[in-house]
Amino acid sequence: MLTFNQNGIYCAQADVYIDPWKPVDNAIITHAHSDHARWGMKKYLAHIHAAPVMRYRLGQDIEVQTADYNEPVTINGVKISLHPAGHIWGSAQVRLEYKGEIWVVSGDYKLGEDGISVPFEPMRCHHFITESTFGLPVYNFPDPATVHHDINDWWRKNREEGKNSVILGYALGKAQRTHKHLDPSIGNIYTHGAVDNINKLYEAAIEPLPVARRIDSSINPKDIKGDIIIAPPSAENTPWLRKLQPYKLGICSGWMQLRGTRRRRGADRGFVLSDHADWGQLNTAIKETGAEHIYVTHGYKSVYAKWLQDAYGLNATEVETLYTGEQLDEPETTGGEDAGI
Amino acid sequence: MRAFSELFTHIDQTTSTNEKIDALADYFEHADPRDAIWCVALLTGKTPRRTIKSGELRDWCAETSGTPVWLLEESYHVVGDLAETISLLLKGSDGETSHTLHEVINSLIALENKTDDQRKAYITGMWRQLSQQELFVFNKLITGGFRMGVSDKITIKALAKRYSIDENIVAHRLTGNWQANETLLDTLMSATHDAADISRPYPFYLAYALETAPEELGDVKDWQIERKMDGIRGQIIVRDHQLFVWSRGEDLLTEKFIEFEPLAKLLPSGTVIDGEIIPAKDENFLPFHVMQTRIGRKNVTKKSLTEAPLVMVCYDLLEHDGVDIRHLSLMQRRELLVQLIETVKEKEANIPLWLSPVLICQNWEEVAAQRLKSREYNCEGLMLKRKDSEYKTGRRRGDWWKWKVDPLSIDGVLIYGQRGHGRRADLYTDFTFAVWDGDELVPFAKAYSGLTDKELLEVDRWIKKHTTDKFGPVRSVTPELVFEIGFEGINASSRHKSGVALRFPRILRWRKDKPAKEANTKADLIDILHVYGGL
Fold this sequence. Notes:
The complex is a heterodimer.
Chain A: E1 2-5, E2 8-11, E3 16-18, E4 26-28, E5 43-47, H1 51-58, E6 64-67, E7 73-75, E8 78-84, E9 92-98, E10 101-105, E11 127-132, H2 144-160, E12 164-168, H3 174-180, E13 189-191, H4 193-205, E14 213-214, E15 228-231, H5 239-242, E16 247-252, H6 259-265, E17 269-271, H7 279-289, E18 293-299, H8 301-312, E19 315-318
Parallel strand pairs in A: 3-4, 4-5, 5-6, 10-11, 11-18, 12-15, 12-16, 13-14, 13-15, 16-17, 18-19
Antiparallel strand pairs in A: 1-2, 2-3, 7-8, 8-9, 9-10
Chain B: H1 2-12, H2 17-30, H3 33-43, H4 54-65, H5 69-79, H6 82-89, H7 101-110, H8 116-129, H9 132-143, H10 152-163, H11 167-174, H12 185-188, E1 205-209, E2 223-229, E3 232-239, E4 242-247, H13 263-266, E5 271-281, E6 284-285, H14 288-295, H15 302-307, E7 310-320, E8 323-324, H16 330-347, E9 353-355, E10 358-359, H17 364-372, E11 379-386, E12 394-404, E13 408-419, E14 428-437, E15 440-447, H18 453-465, E16 467-471, E17 474-477, E18 482-487, E19 489-492, E20 500-503, E21 506-510, H19 522-532
Parallel strand pairs in B: 1-12, 7-9
Antiparallel strand pairs in B: 2-10, 2-11, 3-4, 3-5, 5-6, 5-7, 7-8, 11-12, 13-14, 13-17, 13-18, 14-15, 16-17, 18-21, 19-20
């Protein structure tokens, strides 16, 4: 039912693309990260919580139809529904059913609770399209509760030393997740403008986050002492960040699992915190779908597809897409997520 | 083991030099003294002999963790460090262990004479007991190369802090022939120990590359100009009528350089000479590679003794009549050195000690002209030393500078990329370059260094998008990108398809202005070989 072509993942029966990377007429969007929700589609279908971010990023004038989880729409006989992917708030797996054949496009996903998004829901299907960002057995992420605890401890220690704590993470998703688990009794929370813009959308759609202040011209950086600042990765090495000295830099990413990456990034602390599935989660998720046919996209796709064939005897193939997954060093073409907002 | 793992984690989690120094000094003070000395040994590169092969570790880890070997290999290529890969594949235990660092190291050393079953039982047994943090440290102890983000300088500073002694003295006390199992840190750092090790060399004084125009160094008359030899920097020590030859890498090479044996009798006891060990024949220096073949060998053959006899080109005198004279000025030391060599030559004309010639230059233009002649002498460039300089410890700015010749260079096309290690793990940063031979591209060099971090990321992304084939960790790419490759020397080689082997190839710059077609050819390389290929 689904094919992969130069525009994206295509369902000919419903004439609709899922997360297309070229402008098309009809697009279903799994989530609002810029490698999945792109500009230029005539019509979008997305989860109710993804739509505000898409309007904010792609323009208020885009045409978006929204749906909640488990709220099927039928297009030319294809029953299409969104289901929680647990990746970020408003992220969805897209389930398509036609004449008894079921496909699930999972977009990006992770298992377990993160406090800000509806947890991943396994969907039985025949064909499952999966990412493989962390599709190697060396990626075994620690319990996120421990990581959030470590972040607060780190903040407390830095504060004792008279230093600020700067946390870098994606403005959409990672920033809210980190923010939500901060302990406001330690000190004040500040946000970079790009983070604050998304936070406002989150608070309007879902719930308030711990009190934080946006760093704008009304704030004297000298008044920020022993506090924590949440900023997007693009803020690194900018004059904006230098004003917050002295500070310690923490990076939240699944890539922080590897020592080489941690050292290369030159952060004081790397926190292993990801919105993508680790090795164990990928395997669990795939087994629970019961699918025979697995299409492996962005990540360690050839290795992971071979593993699925060898270990579980699945018909797994790798598929080229333009999705990028979790990136540590942001591509120059986009200038970093939300740069300059 | 736990305290040491915690030290490691602490150091790994900071980029601040002061914090690293404090953490180390604290460890040196509070750790079991038998562990503390091992910590210093590991940090300064005195790693114990390896007793477990990588292949064994791979197999045992695959079996213990239930990971297919091919998947382990793939993971290793991404992680870029076998010890880390294994510790990530094995799940650490929650329990606490009481193994101490020195005990673990000694157990590992003892494995050398054990049966395969015993070796495997010990390693996998430890894997089951250790926590995640300890696992990595344990595996690093097996595979060696334990750098943990601490330079010799940081280690020296931490020891200086712990023992409240001068850094130069610490550096000196760390040299020599001590064994971690035979001494303790307190002993090594104590003054009484100084006389005990008669083989102990002085820390080498190393120069930085000249950063400014030489004119800015002031009057040329205040400077001693010498050629920078291309050999092995070393110290020849005679104390108690015994000879010791040390390399700059602090390897004791006395046995390998048998030419120097007679010096034990010829040089007065209490003599330390700093110089360059190089092959020379009939008053000419031979290229470095002539000696290279000899260093790797266990036994020195008669053939190599006649083909590549070694001499030391003497730069400096550090100890005279048993007295440390490093504080004297270079002029004074040079005078003593000249006297010493002359006196010895009177006794025995044919000794393998040559004075490093001092070049007489009236102005900096003449110095610059001498520098351009370096390759004719098989030299790397010039050394500029302030005449009133003392002999310092380690790499220092100010009094000594090296002024190397510009490297030879050639434009090559990037044809293969391979994932790097350490901080370059999971990035395609190890490159193979080729030159044109007609329509064919012939690989001629591998290079890893020379690009900025930003350029590396750019090339990495480019490689991922322009891969034409994958074999193992290597990707071949469409031949499009051109890089200028610099190198220090060139030799004919029958082992390489290009017919040449380059010395120290590295990337000088990314030639974004050049299409692949305009890269150099094999004929160009052969031309360079004929001009600079030495003898």
